[in-house]
Amino acid sequence: MNSEKSDGVKWTPEQLEAIQIRGVDTLVSAAAGSGKTAVLVERVIAMITDPQRDIDIDQLLVVTFTNAAARQMKDKIARALVKRIEQFPADPRYRRQLMLLNNASINTIHAFCLDVIRSHFQKTDLPFDFEVGQQAELDMLKTEALEETFEDFYEDEAVSGRFQDFIDYFGNRDDKPVMELVQSVYGFINSIPFYQDWLGAQAAALSADEGLFATKWGEYILSYAAEQLSLAKEIISHAIRITDAYGEEHGLLPYGETFGEDMMLVETLKLSLHDDWDKIVCAFGKAAFSTLKRMGKGGDRVLAEELKQMREQVKKIVTGLRDNYFYQEERIFLEDLRAAAPYLEILSEVLKAFDARYTEKKRRRSLVDFNDFEHICLSILAQRGEDGQITPSDVALQLRERYDEVLIDEYQDTNSMQEMILTLVTGPQKRFMVGDIKQSIYRFRNAKPALFLQKYQSYARTVGAGDRRLLLSKNFRSAAPVLSFVNFLFSHLMCTPAAGLNYTEDEALYFGGGYPELALPVDICILDKSVEDEEGPALGGSTQKEACICAEQIRALVDGGFMVYDSEIQGDRPCEYRDFTILMRSMAAKADVYAEVFAQYHIPYFLEQGSGYFQSLEVRAVISLLQVIDNPLQDIPLLAALRSAIFHFSDDELVRIRLGDTGALYYDCVKRMADGGDEHCRLFLEQLDRWREYALYLPVSQLLNRIYKEAGLIALYGGMSGGKARGDNLRLLADWARQFERTSYKGLFHFIGFLQKQMEQAERSLSLSSSFGETNAVTIMTVHKSKGLEANIVLLTDCGKRFNMQDLYSRLLFDEEMGFGPDFADTENRVVYPTAAKNAIALKQKRETLAEEMRLLYVALTRARQKLILVGSYQNAQNKLLTLYSQMLSRGDYAVYAAQNAGCYLDWILLPLMCKSDAGVLREGTSGILKLEECDFSVSFQFYTPGSIRDPLIPQKRERQTAVTEPSGNYREVAQILSYRYPFSEAGQIPAKLTVSEMKRRFDLAESDERVVYYPREINFSNEIQAVPHFLQQEQELPPAARGIAYHTAMQYLDFDRIHTEEEIRTALDALCERGLLSQEERAVIATPDLYRFACSDICREITSSDQVWREQSFLLPLSSEELFAGTDEVIMIQGVIDCIYRKDGGYYLVDYKTDLAPRDVVAARYRVQMELYGRAVKKLFGQLPRKRCLYLLRTGETIEV
Predict the structure, then answer these.
(1) N or C of the chain: less Cβ packing under 10 Å?
(2) Whole-angstrom Cα distance, residue 27 to residue 43?
(3) Which residues contact 905 (CB under 8 A, 6 or more apart)?
C-alpha cells in the first residue's frame, strides 16, 4: 500500500521503508529518476518531527555532493517545515526546527571539514587568518613550488646524480613530462588517508623477494586469465553446439572436429594457471591453433563464416593473454621491478619535498586548499597507535555523540579519504547512505565506487539484518518506452566483469507513472563517414555533420508540431526548443562547431560548459590583446589580435606585412609597414603604445575597462550573434581580473599566467555564458554536467567517438590498491617496455575506464523524459555492422567479451540489437523501423552519408516569378550597370591558399592536356559523392586514399626503434587501435610484411641513427601566382605536411611515404612537383635545401630519389 505525503502525493512502499527505517546502517540504491532527494528530505523531516524521538535538526549530519545540492536541500526542508507550521500552528516543534535550520550541518564534505577545523583550530598549525585560496593562485603556487623543488634536487650534490637518472628514466632527458607526472601523482595521493605511509610502501613492494603470484599484480593477472579462458570455452561450446545441430546438414562436421581440438587447447591452458609462472609462459608459448578443416561439399558458407569469426575471437583471447601478460620469464619480470624500485624511491622523495614546499608557500600567504580541509580534518579526528592502528580521537567521539545520524547523498562518488572521515564521526548503526553505483561518473576526481559496491554486496535486503540494503527502482522521470530501451540495453551489457555488477531485475527501472501511454521510437542516426583525401579529412569533419543531423532532427520535430506531454497542464502541447537537450561525452573542440551550425539553422541554443569560456571569440581576442600589451614580440598572439574584430586586419594585409621581411619578428614587420606609410599599422601601434603605458600603472581590472571603453568592445561584440552573452563574457573577464587582484600576485604578466592556469584547469574554470536566442533554446552540455537534470527530448551525440585509453600509455600508472606500475626503461639502449606491475594496473584501469564509460552512457540515456535520439559516426558502416554481428552470434557470457571489447557508445548501443532475429534492417545497414517482438519499444534507424546532409550555408533553390514590364526611361543606364564586367575578375579566381595535393592534381591535369580551371572551394559537406553509398557497395575494401591514410597514420606513430620483428609490429599496431589512432578497418588493410620490410631498410636505419627527426611536419610556403596562373602577380600560400625530415651530419633529408604500385618512373613523375615544393619548404624551415629527397614505396619496399 502507498502512504500519503502531507501535500497529497503518495510514496511507494519502497520509498516509505527508506523514510521510516531506523537503528541500522542503511544503503539505499536509488535508480535514476526514483526520487531519492525527496526521500532524503522526507526522512529528515520525519526524524525531527517524530514525537517518539527528541531529535533536533542540528543533531543530524547531512553530506551532499555539491554546495548547490546543500542549498536546495535546506530550501526544501524549510518549505516542508513552513507547510507543517501552517497545518499545525499550535505545535512548537516545527518552529523550533525552522529556527535551528540555518545552523544545521547540511553541507558538502569540504564544508563539514572546514567547520571541524574552525571549531578545533588550536589543534592545527594554521595561521589564525587563513582563507581558501583562489584555484588559479594555488595552481601558480604549486608550479613555483615544483620548479623550486626540482632546482633543489639538481643542485644538491648528494642526490643530483640519482635525480638526473630519475629524469632520464621517466622523462627521456626532459624534466617537463616528469613535472607533469609528479603533479599527477600528487593529485592522486591526496585522496588517500595518510598518503606518506602509502608512498613509503610502494618502492618496497617492487623490491620484495616473493614470487610474482604472491604479489597483487600477479594475482590480478591470473584471475583475469582464468576469466578470459572461461569466456573462450563458452564461445567454443556455443560453436560446437552449432556444428552438432547443423553440421551434417550444412557440411560443417569438420569444423566441429577443429573446435573440439580448440577446446582441448584452451582447457590445457586453463589447467596450466595452477602451475608456476614459467610453466604458464611455456604453455602459452607452445599453444598453437590447428588449421581449420575444410567444410564438406555444399556447405553453408554464411554459417561457416560466422563460425570462423567465433574462432577468431577465441584466438584473439589466447594470443592477447600470451602477448600482453605471459610473454616473459618470472625472473626477468622480478628483475625489472627491482630495477625500477630506486626510481620510485626518488619519486617519493620528490613528492614529499614538493608537498613541504607547497605547504610552506600556502602557509606564508595564509592560504589553504580543499585537500588541506580533508587532511587537516583527518588529523583532528583520528589518532594513530604505535602499530599504525587508526582510532577515533576525542573530537571524533564528541561528534559521534552529537550526531544522531549521518546521512550521505551521492555515496557512490565518495573517495577513501572522505570515507575515513565519515566513518570516524559516525556511531554504530547511525549511517544512512543514498546513491546509485550505475551513476558513479567521477572517477577523474578519485571517486571510489568500490566503496558503494562493497556495501551493496554485503548488506542484506531481509528485515532484521544488521545492515540493510534498500532498492528504489520506480522511475518517475521517463516514459515507458525509454525505460524499456534502457533495461534492454543494459541487461545485455552491464555485467560484473564489464561494469562491476550485473544488471538484474533488482537494477532494472520500473515505470512509476506520470505519463500517458506513449509509443515513441528511439531514433538512431548513423553517419557513414566518407573516406577523405590522403592529405587529411575535409574541413568540418564528422562533428559538423553530426551537428547538422541534430539540427535537422530538431527542426523536423519543431516544425512538424511533434507533441510532448506537459505535466503542468496535464496534457499534450507542441514541442519547443527548450524541450531539447544535446549531450556529448566531451565538448572540447565541438562547442564552436555546434554553435555555428545551430546559428545557421536559426535554432536558439544555450551552451553549458566550463572550458568553453576561454574559447569564446571575444575572450580569446581580449586575452591575445593582453599578451601583446605585455610583450608585443610574440608572433601568434599578435597575429590573433590583429585579425580579431578589435583591429580587423584582413588576411591580405597580414600576408603583405609578413612578406616585408619573412625572417623578422612580426612586430618589427608591423613597425616597418607603419614607417612606410601604412595608416592601418600606424593607428594600431599608436593604440598599442597607449595601452602599454596604461599597463605600467593601472590595475588589470582598470586596464581592461579602459580598453573596453576606448575600443568600444562591449558594443562591438554586442552587435554579433549572441551579443548579450558576449558582452557578459567580457564583463566577467573584468570581474575575474578583480578577483585576481585580491591574490598575492600583481601585474599584467601574472594575470596572464593566472588565466593560463584557468585554461589548464578547464573543468574548474568559469561557466560559459554563450547563447543564441532567448530562454526558449536548445541546451548543449556534457554528460557529466547533465547529472541530476532531465529533458523531454535528449539527443546523445558523438556516439561513435572511441573511448580514450591514452592514460594507460603513461610511463607510470598508479592505483590505491595496487600501488605503482612503472615501465622498465633501459636508458642506455633506449629500450622501454611495461613491467608486470604496469601490465596488471593497466588492465585494471582499462576495465575501470570501460565500466565508467558504461555508467556515463546509463546517465545520458536516463536523462530523457519522453524521447531519445542517438547520433554517431562509423567509418565504413556496413563492415562495422557485420563485425558487430559476428561478435554477438553467441549468447550468455559471450556478451561479456563483446562489451569489454567495444570501442565506443555506438558499439554498445547496437551490439544487443544485432543478435535479434528481427534486426535484419539493422544488419543490412538500411534505414527503417525495428520493432522487437519481446520488447515494449521500437527503434528507428536512419543512415546518412556526407552528401545526404544539407549544408545550411548553401541557399535552397526557389522558383521565382518575373513580371514582364516595359523598359523604363533609364533602361540603357541600368543595362550598362548590370552588364558591367569587373576588370580583375580573373584575379578573383586565384586562391589565397592551396594544398600540395591540389597543386599535384593541377599539374596532373595540365600534363594530360585537359583544360585547367580553378573553381573556388565552396563550403559543402561532400567532396566526392559516390553514386552508390560506400557501405552498400559489394566490395568492402577500403579505397586507395583510405589505405594511404592508414599507412601514414602507422608511420606517424610507430616507434621505429621498437619494430624489429613482425610480432613487434603487430603489437604496436594493436596498441594504436587501443589508443583510438587507428580504426579496426584501417588496421586490417596494413600489411605487416610491408612495415617489416621498411624496418629492415636502409632508410629506416638512416632515420633511427639520425641526430633529430621531424614527423608530419606542416608548413606554409609563399609562392608567386605567376608559377600557376600566367600573367598574374599575387601571393599564394601553399600548405602541406611532410611525412618525415631527419637531420644527419649537418644536412637535412626528406622522406615521403607512398602506397602506389606503379612503376618507378611513373611514381617519380607523379610526385616530382610535390617533392620540389617539399624541398623548398625544407629550405624555408631550416635554411638549406635537403641533401636528398626520397619517396619510399611502402607496398614494394623501393626507395626512389626524386
Answers:
(1) N
(2) 14
(3) 585, 796, 799, 800, 801, 853, 857, 870, 872
Is residue 729's pLDDT more than 70? yes
pLDDT tens-digit series, residues 1128-1186:
667 777 878 899 999 988 889 999 999 888 888 888 888 888 898 899 888 888 888 99
CA distance to 139, 290, 448, 876, 1084, per residue, from 306 (Å): 55, 18, 40, 20, 18
Q: How many CB atoms neighbour CB 266 within 10 A? A: 23
What would the pLDDT profile of 648-703 be if each residue is shown by its tens digit?
888 888 988 888 888 888 999 999 899 888 899 999 999 899 999 988 888 888 89
β-strand pairing of 1188-1193 with 431-435: unpaired
- Give the number of other Cβ atoms within 10 Å of residue 592's Cβ: 16
Residue 51: exposure state from Cβ atoms within 10 A (0-12, 13-18, ≥19):
exposed
Q: How far apart are CA 207 and CA 888, in angstroms?
A: 44
What is the distance between the alpha carbons of residues 1202 and 1196, in angstroms, rounded to a whole number?
A: 17
Q: Note the residue count of the chain.
A: 1202
CB 439 within 8 A of CB 787: yes
What is the spatial distance between Cα 109 and Cα 63, in angstroms, rounded to a whole number? 6
* C-alpha 874, offset from chain centre: 18
Torsion of Cα atoms, 72 then 77 then 81 then 82, to 10°: 0
The three cell numbers locating residue 1138: 611532410
Residue 926 has a CB neighbour count (10 Å cut-off) of 14
CA 1037, 1041, 1044: angle at the middle one, nearest 5?
95
Residue 130, pLDDT > 60, answer yes
* Average pLDDT estimate for 593-605: 87
Please tell me the distance from the alpha carbon of residue 1046 to that of residue 455, in angstroms, as a whole number.
Answer: 47
* Tens of pLDDT, residues 195-209: 888 988 888 888 878
Q: For residue 936, what are the CA distances in angstroms to 181, 509, 823?
A: 50, 13, 50
CB 766 within 8 A of CB 558: no
Query: What whole-number distance in Å separates Cα of residue 913 and Cα of residue 881?
Result: 11
Assigned C-alpha cell, 998? 591540389
35 Ramachandran zone, left/alpha/beta (phi>0; psi -120 to 50): left
CB 459 within 8 A of CB 469: yes
Cell of 92: 512548537
Grid cell, residue 993, equals 591558399
866 and 565 in contact (C-beta within 8 Å)?
yes
What pTM, to 2 d.p., does this model score? 0.73
| Residues 72-111 as b or e (16 or more Cβ within 10 Å = b) | bbbebbeebbeebbeeeeeeebbeebbeebeebbbbbbbe
Close Cβ partners of 440 (under 8 Å, ≥ 6 residues apart):
412, 413, 447, 449, 452, 852, 855
Dist CA 1192 CA 1094 (whole Å): 9
**Range scoring the smallest mean pLDDT among 339-353, 1023-1037, 1046-1060:** 1023-1037
Q: What is the DSSP letter of 460?
A: B
- End-to-end alpha-carbon separation of the chain, Å? 86
Q: Where are the alpha helices (DSSP H) in 433-510?
A: 449-458, 480-493, 496-499
Phi, psi of 71 (to 5 degrees): -65, -45
SS3 content of the chain, % helix, strand, coil (to 5): 55, 15, 30
Task: Tell me how far apart the alpha carbons of residues 133 and 115 are, in angstroms, rounded to a whole number.
Answer: 17
Give me the helices (H) in 251-391, please. 253-272, 277-286, 301-324, 330-364, 370-381
Rounded to the nearest angstrom, the gap between the alpha carbon of residue 852 and the centroid of all alpha carbons in its chain is: 12
Q: Which helix (H) or strand (E) holds 782?
A: strand 778-782
Range name among 65-69, 370-374, 718-722, 933-937 with the lowest pLDDT average:
718-722
pLDDT in tens, 292-317: 888 777 677 878 888 888 898 899 99
Q: Confidence class of residue 895 from pLDDT cuts 50, 70 and 90? A: low
Point out which residues pair with 392 in neighbouring strands: 382
